[in-house]
């Protein structure tokens, strides 16, 4: 069995990871780290895991992580995560980091967007961006995998094939994303207040969301030249899910071109579902799963290609994508422990 430890296990993504690892046939979870719930049984915090996860949370000092731990997941907030991950990497552990601390390849860009110093540029350069549909070979041998952000996952998966195949003549890319409230995490009380979220929809951080450089970094690498986006996130009153609607010029592109392009990259990708003409993604159709659904329309009146994607932010947007990465790192079938159908309604 692969021995796994989780730092920050009591957050939303940590708890989803605990649930997934409980179902995983090759994993034994050996520690659940928490500052706030030291000595508390995990299922006393998360009632959905009653009688399933009875382990006691412990506040783990990185120096005390057992030598025989095979993989450590850090589900800590960004800025905090790097301070724990770096000593673990130094001790020779393999780590999957959920935070943004190792996703941006340039420390200066990280420091600008996250307004904090990066503590180790050399380790940053060695980290592998954990989008398994694109970087599986590097992930397989990585010591440190930077699990992508939730919005970036929903945006990169539909756009990367089109950019890689130079299908977009005009690189003006306008993205409208909608996210459920769990995207803000369990501890963000301000965003989570029922009366502010319920029956409300709002745009935020237009043109300045911290996922912008992450998305542009990966799109530019695929395109082989600099790509800029206009990204508008919205907070909507659902628990989980992200729907991204991406508008690009359809100049010189047919439906067949787009289909062929997606087929070439995703035919063997078990978690990408390209929807047939007449169907479009919806958040509920991926809820509770590692799927990313992608559908598109070519609108001849406006001359635009409109691509829509849906993921579960806590799963393909973080915890199940991390398990998919772990499967790749340990040479397992990437579907191991993840081969479930979404829940509906
Ligand atoms: N929510 C989402 O949809 C996604 C989240 N992510 C990333 O995953 C990571 C975890 O996110 P999420 O689970 O939503 O966050 P939560 O706020 O739900 O959980 C984070 C946990 O980290 C622990 N923690 C330890 N030190 C600190 C600290 N100094 N400040 C605050 N919390 C601390 C807390 O647990 P305790 O007090 O018990 O130690 C807390 O429950 C973040 O880096 C986030 O950016 C990535 C993709 C999607
Ligand atoms: C609703 C909400 O607030 N969502 C978060 C993004 C979610 C996320 O977790 O992204 P990281 O992995 O980069 O932290 C936001 O917009 O900042």
Strand order of the largest sheet: 8-9-7-10-13-12-11
The helix/strand series, from N terminus to C terminus, equals: EHEHEHEHHEHEHEHHEHEEHEEEH
Number of domains: 2
Which overall shape is indicated by the principal axes computed on the Cα atoms? Answer: globular
How many DSSP E strands?
13
Instruction: State the low-pLDDT regions, or none.
Output: none
CATH level 4 superfamily of the largest domain: Dihydrodipicolinate Reductase, domain 2
- Ligand identities: NADPH dihydro-nicotinamide-adenine-dinucleotide phosphate, N-acetyl-L-glutamyl 5-phosphate
Q: Provide the gyration radius in Å.
A: 20 Å
**CATH fold type of the largest domain:** Dihydrodipicolinate Reductase, domain 2
Strand content: 15-25%
Helicity level, as a percent range? 25-40%
Keywords:
Rossmann fold, six-stranded parallel sheet, cytoplasm, binds N-acetyl-L-glutamyl 5-phosphate, 12 helices, EC 1.2.1.38, 2 domains, alpha/beta, binds NADPH dihydro-nicotinamide-adenine-dinucleotide phosphate, 20% strand, seven-stranded mixed sheet, Dihydrodipicolinate Reductase, domain 2, AGPR_AS, 345 residues
């Amino acid at each position: 069995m692969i021995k796994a430890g989780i730092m920050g296990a009591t957050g939303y993504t940590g708890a989803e990871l605990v649930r997934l690892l409980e179902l995983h046939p090759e994993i034994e979870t050996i520690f659940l780290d928490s500052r706030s719930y030291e000595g508390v049984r995990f299922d006393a915090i998360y009632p959905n895991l009653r009688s399933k996860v009875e382990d006691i949370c412990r506040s783990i000092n990185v120096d005390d992580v057992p030598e025989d731990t095979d993989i450590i997941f850090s589900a800590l907030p960004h800025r905090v995560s790097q301070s724990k991950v770096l000593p673990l990497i130094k001790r020779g552990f393999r780590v999957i980091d959920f935070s943004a601390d190792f996703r941006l390849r340039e420390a200066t860009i990280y420091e600008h967007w996250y307004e904090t110093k990066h503590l180790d540029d050399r380790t940053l350069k060695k980290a592998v961006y954990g989008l398994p549909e694109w970087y599986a070979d590097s992930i397989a041998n990585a010591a440190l995998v930077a699990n992508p952000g939730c919005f970036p996952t929903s945006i990169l998966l539909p756009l990367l094939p089109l950019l890689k195949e130079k299908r977009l003549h005009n690189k003006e890319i306008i993205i409208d994303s909608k996210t459920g409230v769990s995207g803000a995490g369990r501890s963000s009380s301000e965003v989570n207040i029922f009366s502010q979220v319920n029956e409300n929809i709002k745009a935020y951080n237009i043109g300045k969301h911290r996922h912008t450089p992450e998305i542009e970094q990966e799109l530019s690498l695929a395109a082989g030249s600099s790509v800029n986006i206009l990204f508008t996130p919205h907070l909507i009153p659902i628990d989980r899910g992200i729907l991204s609607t991406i508008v690009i010029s359809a100049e010189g592109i047919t439906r067949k071109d787009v289909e062929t392009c997606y087929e070439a990259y995703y035919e063997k990708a078990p978690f990408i579902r390209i929807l047939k003409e007449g169907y479009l993604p919806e958040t509920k159709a991926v809820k509770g799963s590692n799927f990313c659904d992608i559908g598109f329309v070519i609108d001849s009146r406006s001359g635009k290609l409109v691509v829509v994607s849906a993921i579960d932010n806590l799963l393909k947007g973080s915890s199940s994508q991390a398990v998919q990465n772990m499967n790749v790192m340990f040479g397992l079938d990437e579907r191991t422990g993840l081969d479930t159908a979404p829940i509906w309604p």
